[in-house]
Amino acid sequence: MVEERRVSDSRVETVHMVRPNHLNAAGRLFGGILMQWLDEVAGLVAKRHTHSNVITASVDNLRFIKGAYQKDVVVIIGKVTYVGNTSMEVRVDTYVESVDGMRRPINRAYFTMVALDENDKPRKAPRLILETEEERAEWEAAKKRREMRIKRKEEGF
C-alpha cells in the first residue's frame, strides 16, 4: 500500500520574538537568523510528512519582502506543496504579527527536502493528498519551480 498524507497533516507554525541578539547592524532581523528559523520549520514539515529524517537539498525564491525589528512577533508557517520520489517542496511563509493579530508578510521561501532512511540514504516519500483548489494550484506551480531547478542544475547554476 502506498503511503499518503494530507497537506494539513504536516503543517507547522512557529512563533518567535525578535530579540536584540537577532538583529543585524542596521537594527533589523538578521537574515541568517531568519534562514535558520525557516530551515527548522521546513525540516519539521518534511519530517512530519515522511515520518523519517530529512535533509535540506536547496532553497529557492528566498524573498525578503519587508524587515522585522526588535520586539516584533514573527510567525513562520510551513507546508508541503509538492512530492516527487524522495524529495518534496516545502513552502515557508513568514509574517510579522501585530498585537491585534494582523499578519503582514515579510518573507517567502521554497525548500527542497529529501527523505532519508535509517542509513541516511534517500527513501521514497509518501504521496501528497490534495484536498483544496489552493493545494492543487500550489502543486502545479511547484511542478514549474521543479522544472526550473532541474534546468538550472543542468546548466550549472
UniProtKB/TrEMBL annotation:
It comes from the Bacteria. Pfam families: 4HBT (PF03061). Keywords: Hydrolase. InterPro entries: Cytosol_ACT, HOTDOG_ACOT, Thioestr_dom. Residues 8-119 form the HotDog ACOT-type domain. Belongs to the acyl coenzyme A hydrolase family. This is Acyl-CoA thioesterase. It comes from Faecalicatena faecalis. The lineage of its organism: Bacteria, Bacillati, Bacillota, Clostridia, Lachnospirales.
